[in-house]
């Protein structure tokens, strides 16, 4: 069992108190410097009421912890892992090697990366049989949406929430179009 140093979030709470509800999504990163980016995934999961845990799992500094985390994730009730990595970005791929759970990689434009491109390449160039679904650079929020879509396959509440979310996105764009029209811009569509 992985040592309990993670934070489990209360869906909808502002203070993220530890709870007994089993997390469905694990958000992991290699260092504290990744937290600024990866917290966006936590924010989205919280908005949708999806229980999650968030912790550090470094493939280079704590490799045994990484293996233990990946190997125990499914048994502990997790269904999807979101793994952020900058620079060499080994975390998503290495975790994928030790679990059958879907792993969503978030390439991070860190101080040691090449504008995040090295991170992207290390995630998308996985060998056959060990995939890592990869979102855009610093796109942890999209990783959370993708995780929610995976969970929504068998969860009607989440599917309904995603439908409402998409409608909200569409409505926001339509309001902007109307504001542009009022400002004198023409819409050829």
TrEMBL record:
Q: What class does this enzyme belong to in the EC scheme? A: isomerase
Reaction(s) the record says it catalyses: 5-carboxyamino-1-(5-phospho-D-ribosyl)imidazole + H(+) = 5-amino-1-(5-phospho-D-ribosyl)imidazole-4-carboxylate
Ranges of residues in domain PurE: 23-173
Q: Which InterPro entries match?
A: PurE_ClassI, PurE_dom, PurE_prokaryotes
EC number(s): the record gives 5.4.99.18
- Where along the chain is substrate bound? 31, 34, 61
UniProt superkingdom: Bacteria
Q: In which pathway does it act?
A: Purine metabolism; IMP biosynthesis via de novo pathway; 5-amino-1-(5-phospho-D-ribosyl)imidazole-4-carboxylate from 5-amino-1-(5-phospho-D-ribosyl)imidazole (N5-CAIR route): step 2/2
What Pfam family is a match for this entry? AIRC
Which keywords belong to this entry?
A: Isomerase, Purine biosynthesis
Family assignment? Belongs to the AIR carboxylase family. Class I subfamily.
Give a short account of what the protein does: Catalyzes the conversion of N5-carboxyaminoimidazole ribonucleotide (N5-CAIR) to 4-carboxy-5-aminoimidazole ribonucleotide (CAIR).
Its protein name is N5-carboxyaminoimidazole ribonucleotide mutase
Q: Which gene encodes it?
A: purE
